[in-house]
Structure formats: structure tokens, C-alpha cells
Amino acid sequence: QVQLVESGGGLVQAGGSLRLSCVASGIIGSFDSMGWYRQAPGKQRELVAIITNVGITNYGDSVKGRFTISRDKAKITVYLQMNSLKAEDTAVYFCTLRSFKVYWGQGTQVTVSS
């Protein structure tokens, strides 16, 4: 059974940084991508960043230049370095893995105080 476990969320002041991690387990074979989405209260879930199995990255417009996604293939772990955080980055951040289906983690809360 595939499981995704996120960590690293918390409370930070505007302008600060956080690093999220997501470890996948139960994976058999290759997969297409891992990444992060987020959902703020009253809003739809939106793309934050994705990294494919060949290292191609894609970012949501609101985080370009501030967030960086990276991975450790051997550990099946994806990271999200978040810098210059803003109050509008406050959301639950979900890790995702795409193979023949899409898997989601439970989410980790990120709160940015202004």
C-alpha cells in the first residue's frame, strides 16, 4: 500500500522560510512524478510544484522564484524549500505521487503570520 508522509510544516513569520519533506513507501516500480499541492480555507486545491522522474520541474505561478522542489530518488523523498513566505502561502500542503494513479498524503499545515 502506497503511503506518503509529510513533515516540516509549522508557523513562520512573513519573509521567513520552511522546508517540507515527503517520504513515500510501498512503491513498486517506477512512477511519473512527485510534488506538492496546497489548499487554503475556502479555496480550491492548487499546484505548488511538481518534479518528474527525469527531473523536470513545474511551479505554480504564485510561488515561482520563491519555492524550490527537489528530490532524493534513492529515498523516494521530495522536498519543498519555501523562501520569502507570504501570508497568502498559508494553507495545508499535500504531497502527491503519480504513477498509474494519483496518491495523496494527509497534508501538513503551513501558517505564515503577517
Task: Give a structural overview.
With 114 residues, this protein is mainly β. Helix content is 0%, strand content 55%. The protein is built from no helices and eleven strands. Strands 2, 4, 5, 6, 9, 10 and 11 form a seven-stranded mixed beta sheet that branches. The chain has a four-stranded antiparallel beta sheet with strand order 1-3-8-7, with no helix packed on it. β7 and β8 (77-82) form a beta hairpin. It is globular, with a radius of gyration of 13 Å. The termini are far apart.
In short:
This protein is mainly beta and 114 residues long.
Radius of gyration: 13 Å
Q: How can the largest sheet be summarized? A: 7 strands, mixed
Oligomer: single chain
N-C termini distance: 40 Å
Shape: globular
Mean pLDDT rating: 95
| Helix and strand composition category | mainly beta
- Helical percent range? under 10%
Percentage of residues in strands = over 45%
Instruction: Write down how many β-strands occur, each being a DSSP E stretch of 2 or more residues.
Output: 11
Low-confidence stretches: none
Number of helices: 0
The H-and-E topology, N to C, reads as EEEEEEEEEEE
List keywords for this structure.
4-stranded antiparallel sheet, 7-stranded mixed sheet, mainly beta
Topology:
Blueprint: E1 3-7, E2 10-13, E3 18-25, E4 33-39, E5 46-52, E6 57-59, E7 67-72, E8 77-82, E9 91-98, E10 102-104, E11 108-113
Parallel strand pairs: 2-11
Antiparallel strand pairs: 1-3, 3-8, 4-5, 4-9, 5-6, 7-8, 9-10, 9-11
